[in-house]
Amino acid sequence: MDWLSFSILLARIMIEIVFFAIGASIFSFLNVIIYRLPRHIQFTLGHSKCTTCGHELTMRDMIPILSWVSLRGKCRYCGARVSARYTIVEVLGGIFAVLWTVLFGIKWMALLAFLASGVLTVVLYILYDKMRESSLRQSRK
Ligand SMILES: [Zn+2]
To answer: Which candidate among 21, 47, 51, 75 keeps its CA 20 to 30 Å from the CA of 5?
Structure first.
């Protein structure tokens, strides 16, 4: 591999790392929608809070993937376990961003595929939660 090809490959890898971070950040916001939409909580207002202790989360608690890993999946304030699903959704966002830009290039088609992936992720997670909720309610009867 010559120097030019290596440089182009290196630049492409750095661009994909940036796309991964952007995808993870956007899907991090989709976590907010997945949690708040079925509970009729406005998702454009208010800070994110720990679902156990209610402590308001700061920016350093909400860095996609990295916060969850550095806190070993626990709340910084109360130590309660934070579900891995939030991080899984963020990783999915990063993977989708990289996958679609590698497949389609940095084009509108990649953006459309990414948006469709996001909508599908939100719908599937909300449906999954609804099904789990209703089966829990059934088992309590
Ligand atoms: Zn907490």
So the answer is: 21
Give me the residue spans of the domains in the chain: 3-140
pLDDT tens digits for 23-34? 999 999 999 999
The predicted-structure confidence for 81-92, as pLDDT tens digits, reads as follows 999 999 999 999
Residues in a beta bridge with 81: 74
Spacing, Cα 23 to ligand 1 middle (Å) = 26
DSSP string, 57-77: P-GGG-STTHHHHHTTTB-TT
Ligand 1 centroid distance, CA of 55 (Å): 6
State the distance from the centre of ligand 1 to the C-alpha of 101, rounded, in angstroms. 37
Task: Determine the distance separating the centroid of ligand 1 and the alpha carbon of 74, expressed in angstroms.
Answer: 8
